[in-house]
Amino acid sequence: MNTRYITLAAALIFSSLGPIAQAETLTGWVTQITDGDTITVQDYSNQQHKVWLIGIDAPEKYQAFGNLSHQKLGALLNGRDVAVEWNKRDRYGRIIGKVMAAPFDSPCRNQRDCPKTLDAGLEQIKTGQAWWYRGHAKEQTPEDQSKYERAEFEAKIHRNGLWADSNPVPPWELLRK
């Protein structure tokens, strides 16, 4: 087979991976929960990093369900080891990343090298603690976009969390007013 075609095929495959091809991974433990979509991770060299969970936007603290969203994320992540897959910072310097933790039922959940298969952002959406933030969709894999969209749909039809409200207002709509 011609090496030019192999090179072209490899380029097409890697370019289709999108943001994952250039992703970095931050590992550490969660030291602070700022709100329902923002945490602080301390890496193993003791540096602190603000992280906005990619693909979600949680109610602000002053909004209905804002405090509950904050509490739920705290119960999910506070003090736990995480791996943050990221490739972008926002205008405030926060890392925008997919935050992964070991599932609670994992026998090794308190060990640093335990497989991290629980997507914290997806969990926030499933329980109705956040909206799927489509503004991050282009940074998500097609698989994650599909999972997040489906989770929001399910939370909405089951009236989980913020969807129990008759007309929940997402934070990005408040900021436009």
Could you walk me through the main structural features you see in this protein, from its secondary elements to its overall organization?
The protein has 177 residues and is of the alpha+beta class. The protein is built from five helices and eight strands, in the order αββββαβββαβαα. Helix 3 (120-126) runs parallel beside helix 4 (142-157). The longest helix is centred in the C-terminal third of the chain and has 16 residues, at 142-157. The protein starts with a helix and ends with a helix. Mean pLDDT is 89; it is low at 3-21.
Topology:
Elements: H1 3-16, E1 24-33, E2 38-43, E3 48-53, E4 56-57, H2 66-77, E5 81-89, E6 95-101, E7 118-119, H3 120-126, E8 131-132, H4 142-157, H5 171-176
Parallel strand pairs: 3-6
Antiparallel strand pairs: 1-2, 1-5, 2-3, 4-8, 5-6, 6-7
Helix pairs in contact: 3-4
Q: Quick summary of this structure?
A:
By secondary structure, this protein is of the alpha+beta class. Helices cover 31% and strands 25% of the residues. The strands form two sheets. Strands 1-2-3-6-5 form a five-stranded mixed barrel. Strands 4-8 form a two-stranded antiparallel sheet.
Following the backbone from N to C, one meets helices and strands in this order, namely HEEEEHEEEHEHH
What percent of residues adopt helix (DSSP H or I)?
25-40%
Largest sheet, spatial ordering of strands: 1-2-3-6-5
Could you report the average pLDDT, rounded to the nearest whole number?
89
Strand percentage lies at: 15-25%
Query: Which structural class is indicated by helix and strand composition?
Result: alpha+beta
Number of strands: 8
Globally, the shape reads globular
In the predicted model, the low-confidence regions spanning at least 5 consecutive residues are: 3-21
Distance between the termini: 59 Å
Q: So how many helices?
A: 5
Query: What is the radius of gyration?
Result: 18 Å
Largest sheet: 5 strands, mixed, barrel
